[in-house]
Amino acid sequence: MKKLYWESIEVNNQKFFFTVTEKGLNFVSSPGKYLSELFDFYPDRYDDQFMYDDSVTADYLSEFTDYFDQKRQDFDLPLDLENIGTDLQHQVWAEIQKIPYGQTVTYKQLAENIGKPKAIRPVAHAVAMNPDLIVIPCHRVVRSSGDIGEYRGGKETKKALLELEKKPIEKHALISKLPLPKLSQLGKSDL
């Protein structure tokens, strides 16, 4: 029996669930959906053992938190895409991960990037079948018409993610300026 460790993060009153295997992140839910959405992607997971163990999921939760706090643009966490998807889907998901933070590509460009310029519909289907929302940033794939297109997490969520990534990232000083001490604090009288 395979173990799946689950966790959730709440963003703007919307809860995202995610699951992690021993190999890596394997699912991120749509916001406001329950963990059971996992079975739409992995119908054979009914036999898996679901466990909550924050020592397993803490690094993943930290990366999601940093992303939503605009402290992170890329995810370093490992993914577990074993037993899901076709070769084309894996090719598309790998290409999606190359889309830079704050930028978008069209479905047509994505199809061209993987060397299948006439496969726009199958590429769009592969985007829709992405099990790891946000980490495999399919929200960055838009229609050629300029419309943002559909999104498993909902159009409003896609729009919010694109807007989040367009906001300028606040730079924080590594060392904050401290006030200089008065001479009297150094054991000398003020001048």
TrEMBL record:
Its EC number is 2.1.1.63. Residues 88-166 form the Methylated-DNA-[protein]-cysteine S-methyltransferase DNA binding domain. The keyword DNA damage applies. The keyword Transferase applies. Pfam families: DNA_binding_1 (PF01035). InterPro entries: MethylDNA_cys_MeTrfase_AS, MethylDNA_cys_MeTrfase_DNA-bd, MethylDNA_cys_MeTrfase_DNAb, MGMT_N_sf, WH-like_DNA-bd_sf. It catalyses: a 6-O-methyl-2'-deoxyguanosine in DNA + L-cysteinyl-[protein] = S-methyl-L-cysteinyl-[protein] + a 2'-deoxyguanosine in DNA; a 4-O-methyl-thymidine in DNA + L-cysteinyl-[protein] = a thymidine in DNA + S-methyl-L-cysteinyl-[protein]. PANTHER family: METHYLATED-DNA--PROTEIN-CYSTEINE METHYLTRANSFERASE (PTHR10815), METHYLATED-DNA--PROTEIN-CYSTEINE METHYLTRANSFERASE, INDUCIBLE (PTHR10815:SF12). This is methylated-DNA--[protein]-cysteine S-methyltransferase. It comes from Lentilactobacillus buchneri DSM 20057. The lineage of its organism: Bacteria, Bacillati, Bacillota, Bacilli, Lactobacillales.
